[in-house]
Amino acid sequence: MIRPFDWRDVSLVRQLSNQGTCLDSITRLTRDSQPINNALLAYLMPGTGAPTLVWRDGARAGFGQLRHRPGEEQARALFIAPHWSPDNAAWLPLVDRLAAEAGARGGHNLIAEVDETSGEFEALRLAGFAIYARQTIWRLGGEFPAAPGTSGARPAVAADALAVGTLYANLVPRLVQQVEPAPKPGQGYVYERDGELIAFLDVKRGPTGLWVEPYLHPEADDRADAILTAGLHLLAHANRAGRPIYVCVRRYQDWLQGVLQAARFECLGSQAVMVKRLAVRVAEPVLKPLPALEGNASTTPIAGARIDIYPN
Predict the structure, then answer these.
(1) pLDDT, tens digit, 9 for 90 and up, residues 240-252
(2) CA dist., res. 165 & res. 158, Å (int)
(3) Are 138 and 263 in contact (CB under 8 A)?
(4) Using CA atoms, how far apart are residues 74 and 70, in angstroms rounded to an integer?
C-alpha cells in the first residue's frame, strides 16, 4: 500500500534516509538530501518541502519524495529509499506513484539523474523513463587558478533574459529544450564580447555548495578558459563561506571538459538525465442545453458531461 507521509512515518523515514538514493544532483550537492526535514515541511506546510509517499507491505517499507514547484512543468524524483535492488519491491511502485503525483500537480515531465551503470538506471527504464541528456559533474579541488582578468564578465541582471534565452535556443538541442525551459539570469554571470552576450554561467546556491551550469557559444571556444575562469573568480569572490563549487557540463558542450581539467577541477562522474512524460488531466467544460431556435419549438437538451482526456 502507498499513501502520503504522516506523523506515524517519522521513525521510518529517519531510519531509511541513509539507505536511499538521491536522484537530483543539485539538491544532493548544494543542500544535502535531508529526507526527514523535507517530509515534515511538506506535511506541516503544504507547498513547501518535498511531498513524500510511503510504501508498506507487512514488515517491508520504503518511501519516495518529489520536488515540484507550483506552476512548473518540470517535476523531479528527489529521493527513494531503500536503494534499488532486484529484491526491493518498493522501488518501481514508488516511481509510478511519484509520476502520478507529479501529473496530478500539473507537471508534464518527471526528471531523474542517475549513473548510467547503476541498477537505478535500469529500473527507471523499466518505469518508462528515457535519456534526454548526459552530464559530467566537476568539483573545484585545491587552489583556484590565477585570474586572466575579468574584463567582459559581470553579474547577470533581469535585462539579460532575452539574450540568455537566445543563447540557450541556439546552443541546446531541441530534445532538451522540450523538457527544460531556458534558464533565468537569476544570480548567474554573463560574459560579453563586442557588446554581444556569448556566455552565461547559471548558478544555484545552497548551504553546502554552489552549482554552476555553463552555456558558452561554440564560437567562443577560443576564449573558453578565460570566460570560465573569469566567471568562477567572480563567484569565488562572493563565496565567503568557502562552499565547494561544482560545474555541470552537458554532453553537447563536451569540449569544456578539457578546460575544467586544465583548471584543476576534479571529475566526480557522469550521469544520464532521464525523463518520463506524464499524462496531464484536461477537463472539458460541461455542455449546456441548446436554446429553442424559434417560436416554441422544443429541443432535446444535451446531457451535461465532464470528460477527462489523458493524452499519450
Answers:
(1) 778 899 999 999 9
(2) 12
(3) no
(4) 10
This prediction has a pTM of: 0.84
Cell numbers standing for residue 16: 531509511
Q: How many CB atoms lie within 10 A of CB 82?
A: 18
Nearest to 112 by CA among 127, 100, 37: 127
C-alpha cell at 272: 544520464
66 contacts 102 by C-beta, under 8 angstroms? yes
Q: How far apart are CA 164 and CA 171, in angstroms?
A: 11
Q: Measure Cα distances from 277 to 106, 126, 197, 282 in Å.
A: 12, 14, 33, 15
Give, as one character, the DSSP assignment of residue 26. Answer: H
Question: Do the Cβ atoms of 51 and 60 come closer than 8 Å?
Answer: no
Question: How far separated are the first and last CA of the chain, in Å rounded?
Answer: 27
Residue pLDDT, tens place only, 10-31: 999 999 999 999 999 999 999 9
Q: Would you say 63 and 54 are in contact if contact means Cβ atoms under 8 Å apart?
A: yes
Query: What residues have CB less than 8 Å from 291, skipping those under 6 apart?
Result: 299
141/294 Cα distance (integer angstroms): 83
The Cβ-side half-sphere exposure at 91, using a 13 Å CA radius, reads 21
The Cα 131–Cα 79 span in angstroms is: 19
Residue found under cell 509517499: 53
All three cell numbers of 262 = 586544465
